[in-house]
Amino acid sequence: MYENAFNQIERALRAEEGVANELDYVEQTSWVLFLKYLHDLESERRDRAELNGEAYQPIIDGPHRWDVWAAPKDRAGDFDHNAAKVGDDLVTFVDRELFPYLASFRQSATGPRTIQYKIGEVFTELRSKFRSGYILRDVLEIIDGLSFNTQDQRHELSQLYETRIRRMGNAGRNGGEYYTPRPLIRAMIKVVDPKIGETIYDGAVGSAGFLCEAYDYLRAGKLSASDYETLQTKTFFGQEKKGLAYIIGIMNMILHGIEAPNLVHTNSLNENVMDIQEKDRHDLVLANPPFGGGERREVQQNFPIRSGETAYLFLQHFIRKLRAGGRAAIVIKNTFLSNTDNASVALRRELLEACELHTILDCPQGTFQGAGVKTVVLFFEKGAPTRDIWFYQLDPGRSLGKTNPLNDDDLAEFVTLQKTRATGPKSWIVDRAGLDAETCDISVKNPNAPAAAALRNPEEIIEAMLARDAETAAILENIRGML
């Protein structure tokens, strides 16, 4: 049913002038889904309050309630078309009344971790791109048929939403900023092995894939009421600079079952890393920070190792965001391992001295759709210097692409071997003492790979070509004789 509903929404949005691409599709679907989710959440809370004999104070009131403007019902519970806004009236209400009202929650909320504050932030950043009130009316009626009441329903909706995020990631360069392949995330999480009671942080949260997958990992076992409360409010923390990614991240976490995600809309790199205190630190960091970029000079001043490469600034941020003994898994360009510029060398030296960099996963070309760079994953623990590094060269045995993406089976051997750091054709260990002391080069050089066949010298190549030409000429002469 939900798959059919999403397909109907997509067909409706194709006819909407204001929705131009996959990014717009996810953005505009997100805010409508968010408001339907809030309506269902309020209904659940109201029923719970009535059972307990308590009064309930709604989050959203009067004409701004979903069942008043979006999906009014008659006494029989059927959709009331006579009461429903449509056309220009609907677009005007959404743009001039609904969005400003919801945006005002940012000022009136009691704190940034409340659902009210999240509502205010989302609708401060967002703008409705619907120009046709008739298409918006169709979308509202489809989404009104979706329910968020059970865990199974949320799970199905989250899977469909993830599919749309993946398609957005494949749609182009900008969309790719928000999507990290989920099999890679799951493998990273299995290696760092989070526990209930630990805090998990992503300072470049994007679509919140790391936090959502970590939540699924942690709730797989039996949970007490206390464990559940810990996962809901005290475990997952993220920050995101871009408005669209922030909104998608919140919606994705909500669909996975986290009612009020601890996401903050801010640029993590604006924080001076020397000001980070123990209360700001976390047990785990999981992240895929943006590559390239080029932050302003005043932002670079926040870091002891200054660089125009955004990922280098994020790596410094993450190291200082970890508690002593904290664990991290960070995706970064593989050129970080061997670049000879001052920032690269200094950052590698800091990583090797401040942390135990115990594992490097070398990812093949095509792991990230649309990205023109190869990547590695750095696994490290803060508090002790690196002794040796276990490398694993991921080789799925095929070319990766949109129709043939990375899957969980591709990473199964890596996850298994990493536990014992076993060596083999695709894995090896490099001793820290054997690294170049000046450059700290830790590039991927598999000593166990089969030797490549020696290249022939030019004379041999020319002789072989002449021999084939002579053979071809003889065959043509034979054919001429048969004509």
From TrEMBL:
Does S-adenosyl-L-methionine show up as a keyword for this record?
yes
- Pfam families for the chain: HsdM_N, N6_Mtase
Residue ranges occupied by any N6 adenine-specific DNA methyltransferase N-terminal domain in the UniProt entry: 12-77
Tell me the superkingdom of the source: Bacteria
Which SUPFAM superfamilies does UniProt cross-reference here? S-adenosyl-L-methionine-dependent methyltransferases
Give the DNA methylase adenine-specific domain ranges: 153-421
Q: What is this protein called?
A: site-specific DNA-methyltransferase (adenine-specific)
